[in-house]
């Protein structure tokens, strides 16, 4: 169900036909682990625009991922990322810059559907159904409530309608910080999912901040 945006792990069915959904996380609170490659169309896959990524985006990233594929096939076993001295300037940052420019194209103020696309970005990253997110660590358990459709108790969670800025995260490695209105501040960190060089990269997407008033409570474990 997660492939269609329903991130709930447990669903409580109530007698009045209401549902209470719970998403469970252990030792992390990441939103998504989406991939980028020379074939994966993130604009279409994330539901931002049915026409998909622009020609400009593909012109930027396809040569990069093509080079990675050639490197992968250059030896058996494939070379390791730790041996690629120029990976930051030749791979990570150019791909991140292309991603940021494409996100600005579909969600920025120049897009006629920017407001709806910003809302869809959060639906993709957070989930399409209302739910409680339970995050367990050895010392505490925290609970967040995402009530975007108003089916749970408390205030309705607002969705963003505009991107305020996209910046390199200060002090972070291979990351872009996307700040949207209504209190959303997200970090997109790009990394290799394998120690071996391969023609794809993976995002670890996390929230720096959510809207003020979002239900949040912590319980210490003693």
Q: How many domains in all?
A: 1
Query: Helix count, per DSSP?
Result: 4
SSE-based structural type:
alpha+beta
In this structure, how is the largest beta sheet organized? 5 strands, mixed
Please indicate the percent range of residues in DSSP E strands (runs of 2 or more): 25-35%
What low-confidence regions span 5 or more consecutive residues with pLDDT below 50? none
Extended strand count: 10
Radius of gyration: 19 Å
Distance between the termini: 35 Å
Task: Report the principal-axis shape.
Answer: globular
pLDDT averaged residue by residue: 94
- SSE topology string: EEEHHHHEEEEEEE
- The helix content, as a percent range, equals 25-40%
Strand numbers in spatial order across the main sheet: 1-2-4-5-10
List the SSEs and their pairings.
Layout (H helix, E strand, L loop, with lengths): L9 E4 L5 E8 L8 E3 L4 H4 L9 H18 L14 H21 L6 H13 L4 E6 L3 E7 L16 E6 L6 E6 L4 E7 L8 E10 L6 E5 L2
Parallel strand pairs: 2-4
Antiparallel strand pairs: 1-2, 3-9, 4-5, 5-10, 6-7, 7-8, 8-9
Helix pairs in contact: 2-3
């Amino acid at each position: 169900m997660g492939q269609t945006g329903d991130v709930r792990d447990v669903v409580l069915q109530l007698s009045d036909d209401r549902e209470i959904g719970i998403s469970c996380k252990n030792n992390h609170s990441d939103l998504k682990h989406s991939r980028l490659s020379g074939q994966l169309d993130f604009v279409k896959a994330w539901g931002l625009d049915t026409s998909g990524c622009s020609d400009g985006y593909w012109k930027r990233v396809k040569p990069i991922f093509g080079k990675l594929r050639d490197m992968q096939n250059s030896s058996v076993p494939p070379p390791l990322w730790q041996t690629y001295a120029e990976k930051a300037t030749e791979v990570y940052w150019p791909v991140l810059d292309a991603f940021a420019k494409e996100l600005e194209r579909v969600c920025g103020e120049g897009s006629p559907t920017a407001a709806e696309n910003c809302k869809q970005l959060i639906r993709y990253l957070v989930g399409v159904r209302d739910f409680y997110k339970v995050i367990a660590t050895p010392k505490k358990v925290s609970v967040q409530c995402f009530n975007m459709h108003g089916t749970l108790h408390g205030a309705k969670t607002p969705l963003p309608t505009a991107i305020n800025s996209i910046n390199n995260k200060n002090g972070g490695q291979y990351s872009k910080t996307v700040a949207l209105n209504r209190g959303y501040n997200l970090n997109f960190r790009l990394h290799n999912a394998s120690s071996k060089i391969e023609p794809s990269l993976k995002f670890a997407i996390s929230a720096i901040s959510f809207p003020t008033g979002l239900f949040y409570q912590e319980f210490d474990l003693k």
